[in-house]
Design a protein that fits this description.
There is one protein chain. The protein contains 16 helices and 5 strands. The strands form 2 sheets. A 3-stranded mixed β-sheet has the order 1-2-3, covered by helices on one side. Strands 4-5 form a two-stranded antiparallel sheet. The radius of gyration is 31 Å and the shape is elongated. It is mostly helical.
């Protein structure tokens, strides 16, 4: 019961409007950005509104207009006017290149105008291609041979596994699967870790830690209560960020699957264990570091090393695969317990279970050592006097 009371006390002190409101705000920001990007992608799927004016009744001009009308439509707000001059067909019949004129109507200079512009350029490209095919057909020439003289098939090999897919598709797939996890882990560690260290500094400054240490409670229970309470707050905050990030990332339409690469129930269980032990390792480390905080101000400085340890692997693993790193960098990444759940999705997709097990074992060992050190510190005079009595 005392341990439950300690956990409730930590959660109540840490889960305040000052900690939860920024997380909710960022969740709404990510969701809003995702909604905006999703709207742009939806706009990119629509036909552009274009006015087509033709002064040529020749066969080539009529064919060109018909192709454009297939990819475009006329609306109230046209993004451009395409003018087909009178000599369009005549120029092609004489073996020359025809010319069209495009007048663009920009509503603004924002990025939201880009999809419609790109769609119209695509429509013009397709019209040019189909017109060229028509000309070559009339001259008894194989258009497919001219435009695509070489056909090829692609296969990619990764970890001795052969996949019928180009490398760009595989890289895009793995990037989409592991994009949000490093960010969420970093936010979880930085946020919950900073809360724990700041809490230690405030308790020392307000003398509440001295009162807590005089109560007939096991020091190990105090450490456990702080870690579990901070874990609850960290999970709540990380969940809010995850909701916003998932909505934001899904707005890019990244959902293409590759046969042979998927996560099973066991994979998700291993990912959850890795995530939990990583958070436990981070909070245990923060308890040890927070023990040296004299007040709230010094606690803010002590939060910096934990933030760096969480941010460095996040950036490295977002831009480089673990197996492609040099050996010293691999060792550095492996030694940071927060990096293991960051690279877990990619490792699980590749069925590299040994590295997952090694990471879980290392995080558990790291957490145990930090908890033992924190318990020992709580049994000494370091928390009160700042030094250990001989």
């Amino acid at each position: 019961m005392r341990l439950a009371a300690l956990i409730f006390k930590e959660v109540r002190e840490l889960l305040t409007p000052a900690t939860i409101l920024p997380a909710i705000f960022m969740m709404l920001v990510f969701a809003g950005m995702g909604n905006m990007i999703g709207g742009m992608e939806k706009k990119a799927m629509q036909k552009p509104n274009v006015e087509i004016i033709s002064y040529d009744n020749g066969s080539y001009a009529n064919f060109y207009v018909n192709v454009l009308e297939k990819y475009c439509e006329e609306g109230k707000k046209n993004i451009a006017t395409i003018i087909i001059p009178q000599n369009f067909s005549y120029s092609i019949e004489k073996g020359g290149a025809a010319e069209i004129k495009i007048k663009w109507f920009l509503e603004g200079t924002g990025i939201s105008s880009s999809p419609s512009i790109s769609n119209l350029r695509h429509a013009i490209t397709m019209a040019n291609k189909e017109l060229a095919s028509k000309i070559l057909k009339e001259k008894n020439m194989n258009s497919s041979l001219i435009f695509s003289p070489v056909h090829y098939t692609e296969k990619s090999v990764i970890k001795n596994k052969e996949i019928n897919a180009p490398p760009e598709k595989i890289i895009s797939f793995f990037s989409s699967q592991s994009m949000s996890v490093p960010i969420v882990i970093m936010i979880m560690i930085v946020t919950s870790g900073g809360i724990v260290i700041s809490s230690m500094g405030m308790e020392k400054e307000n003398k509440t830690l001295e009162t807590l240490l005089t109560l007939p409670i096991k020091r190990s229970h105090i450490v456990t209560g702080k870690i579990v309470g901070a874990s609850v707050v960290g999970v709540v905050i990380a969940s809010l960020y995850m909701l916003g990030l998932r909505y934001y990332i899904s707005s890019f339409g990244i959902g293409e699957k590759i046969e042979g690469f998927n996560l099973s129930g066991i994979d998700y269980a291993l990912l959850s264990i890795s995530l939990f032990l990583s958070l436990l390792a981070g909070l245990s480390l923060c308890i040890v570091i927070g023990s040296f905080a004299r007040n709230y101000k010094s606690a803010q400085v002590l939060s910096l090393p934990v933030s760096i340890l969480a941010i460095v692997p996040m950036f490295l693993l977002m831009f480089q695969d673990f197996f492609s790193m040099d050996l010293p960098l691999k060792i550095l990444i492996f030694m940071i317990p927060f990096s293991h759940p960051m690279m877990a999705p990619s490792l699980l997709l590749l069925k590299e279970y040994s590295w997952i097990i090694y990471g879980i074992a290392y995080s558990a060992l790291f957490s145990s050592i930090c908890i033992l050190i924190a318990t020992w510190i709580f049994k000494t005079d370091l928390l009160i006097t700042g030094r250990i009595r001989k």
